[in-house]
Batch of 2 targets.
Target 1
Amino acid sequence: MGTRVYLARLAALPVFDPNGDRVGRVRDAVVRLRTTNRPPQIVGLIAEMALRRRIFLPIGRVTSMDADAVVLSTGTLNLRRFEKRQNELLVLEDLLDRRVTVLPEDGNGPGTAGTVVDVGMDLNRNNEWLVTRIAVRQHTGRLARRGHVYQAEYERVKGLIGPTDTQGTSNLIALLEQMRPADMANALQDLPSARRNEVAEALSDRTLADVLEELPEHDQVEILIRLDRERAADVLERMDPDDAADLLAELPKAEQAVLLDLMEPEEAAPVRQLMNYRPGTAGSVMTSEPVIMTPDATVAEALARIREPELSPVVAAQVFVARAPSATPSGKYLGMAHFQRLLREPPAAILGGLVETDIDPLSPETDLTEITRRMATYDMVAMPVVDNAYRLVGAVTVDDVLDHSLPRDWRDRDKDDTDTAILPRATR
């Protein structure tokens, strides 16, 4: 392990114990402030484990940090959820994107304005990791030109420790966008409310839509209502209709009406329809945008359709076959073809000759208990939903069922956890 490490480069790296078993991923580093003018000390890393639990890893337990992984010297961990103490800061959460001033080396002059893009730590002779170098992007004053990045000693950087209103978002967003939407949502929950809203506002509409789908309802609402209404409507358009409907259902009726009116009519229509179904039924939890193809389509066309990257795995796991039109509500529903069946058939084969018809579709009024029982019985990852005219109106996927079967606060990082099967705890 080298004697200098840049902390932003550790973000999202896997963490392994001495046996090679994966513990989690690096999410941040903990800085302890000191009362003297000495540089702050890095006391540990924050790792995210399964079930979105963030734990503290003492820096003394880390044996290596490189471009591929972080390795620990022990498998004995404190599995309690990490909580930041009063004299601590998190590097990526609190220091990245800070607007600072770098003083000249000779101490003369007003200094140069810039933004923190990385924080370097060095190992001293006492085996302490100290913040010693700050990577700063110089402000140019020109919107079309990015300033060059240079390093400065910690002592020359002013404004690094201070009010959070001196913090931007660009470098934090660059790190977040390397994560899956669920992990990005997880990271946002750990930010202070004001910082979370600031970062959310800076995300693209598509990315913010994906993140909102992974957040607890109260966080979804808080972020959405702080957006300009036009922007909020744009984000809702990019969400899956069932997720947009669930989010709008948390808002007052008047606000629902305003946002639906601001959405494009073709985007608002399926959301309005989903909101009309009784809660806890297939109609209320289904997606109204499954993969639908006509019976004269070929296997090659179906495979090309389910390969589209914007489709989730459960939606792409099967093709529903129906008479035209191929948007919900479709023509008469004929059956489904699973992707495994499609892979076994000649590319020129016609879907109409491959459909499975032995599983009865759901009604929009089928309750969640019955849906769960039938999906478990037939080992299904998605089931069709048809109306009284046998038109396909949507599909219930296994993630829909899980999402609505778990407690309402299952995504909430702030809810209490009970420690079970905890390994012996390392002191902090």
Target 2
Amino acid sequence: MPEPLIGARLERFALPNGLRVVLAPDPAVPVAAVAVLYDVGIRSEPPGRTGFAHLFEHLMFQGSAKVPKLAHARYVQTSGGSFNGSTHLDYTVYHETLPGNALERGLFLEADRMRGPRITEANLRNQVDVVAEEINTNVTNRAYGGFPWLHLPPLLFDSFANTHDGYGSQVDLESATVAEAEAFFERYYAPANAVLCVAGGIDVGETVELVTRHFGDVPARAVPVRPDFAEPPLTGPRRGESHDRLAPLPAFAAGWRVPDPIGELDAYLAHHLLADLLAGGEPARLVRRLVTDENLVTDVSAGLGLMGDALAVRGPGAFVVSGFLPPGGDVDKVVRVVDEELARIAADGPDEDELTRLRTMARSRLLRELDPLIGRAKLLGVFEQQRGDAGLLAGLATRYASITADEIAAAAAALCGRHRALAEILPGRA
């Protein structure tokens, strides 16, 4: 049976222009969430244009065919709604949450910018400045800024697609042109390269009519063939360090390659539970040993993915263990403890109490992600885009619950058998 938060009924269809649509009615809520996901992300950026996918996300808020600059925000907020957008490794998403009676307004706004954003020299230069300030705020002038998602990939992977800085270099951003932005839109923002998901208190028949009315006449365009972003295996361990003048403590992030999240989903999800076994709360093994018993770190975490997006990637991903050390801490000793715990799990697996806790944590995390209506709409859109069927999300909690102790042990054994990348942050200037 589908999870209650996903809903017992999903409607999936495609318009003649190729736009895929998912409707997830939930009569228990009086609001509607609209999410449009485009099949373009950080991995899609070409050399010399680092940060372009994120920059273009900003441009999509600068007005569209019939909507002047700043009007999109005004129309949503005066309806009592909220909006945002975000750029990820494998997709870019734009979304609104609105009262149910303002659904058509949200659909109109998204359809209008799918027809064409207002790409002007003034808008481009303005948003380059906005992104530069965002980099200053989130990376340059923040302790541990961008760690580890900007530091670990160049060690763990080899290709430009998987290693470059998704925020972008200032040189690349400032040299971007209007012509390049227009070409980016034509290439990646076609209806057939997008998924529209509408969730919440909607009438399915009425919503189908509204979607067709507003999106049906967006001109169809060819879509690019998605490249293969796969990486060859690491031939040895890798290590790198950087200095952070604002960091008060040393930090580390150890990363391993993980199974294909699309083709090897069960093995991939077993790594997700392995992360909780290592560092998911006070009873977790690394928390007990590294923090409580041996005082080797002040904090430790483990997880799947570099950007907190374990369930929303389809390219090469990472299993990451990271933490902060006290002054003078020994990162090599910390990593040895991590290796010892992985080897112990590979040999014995989790016990029954641990397995029950891990399954409960996985289900709770999934339900927390699906509880906000916009979170539900986005994840349904991701599953439709990346796996070809949003309905697969309905069985995910059951899939987590079926993972065995042996599968978690196998995940730990796989990490023991793979080469590792280690990124360090050292306080102070080089």
